[in-house]
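Protocol step 4 of 6: structure prediction from sequence.
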Amino acid sequence: MPSSTRIRLIAPADAAPIAAHYARDAEAFRRWEPAQPPEFFTPEGQAARIDRLLTGHEAGTIWPGVVLADDRPIGQITVSTILPQPFLRRASLGYWIATTAQNQGHAGRAVSLALTVMTDRLGLHRIEASTHLENLPSQRVLRRNGFTPYGVAHAAILLDGRWQDSLLWERILDEPGAGEGAA
């Protein structure tokens, strides 16, 4: 039986399972994620990071979510750089799923659920995302959820010791079908 996918605001209690995923998957994520100091992979490091995320949430600049499968944390989905001004109303989307839960549809469902949060709770108009040029699974997730590519940011992120390009994605949220996600 397939597991169910939910998202919710991240909580301090998520630090240990998130740290365990990051520690186990560090090598697998190395080509997609910037290098982190050793404490990042510990429950204490994640507790401090979650505290910063929740402070940003209170300030209205971020919606830090955790992705759950059968109520167990399996990743994160984050709406960041929220610009709520009436003439902007945009943000950036990022997500990851633990390797033990990949290829089960969780990322697509989490993005779909986040679209509803962005539309209904955050009142956003536009959402942007970026992927490594070779991250085809993440590109499929975005495409299935109505995102379209709109450009390449050259030398945009330092990964594995070298500056790499990112494919830029966008979705207008207040068009028909927004918040319904196609995943």
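Step 5 (inspection) to follow. Helices lie at 15-29, 43-59, 106-121, 136-144.
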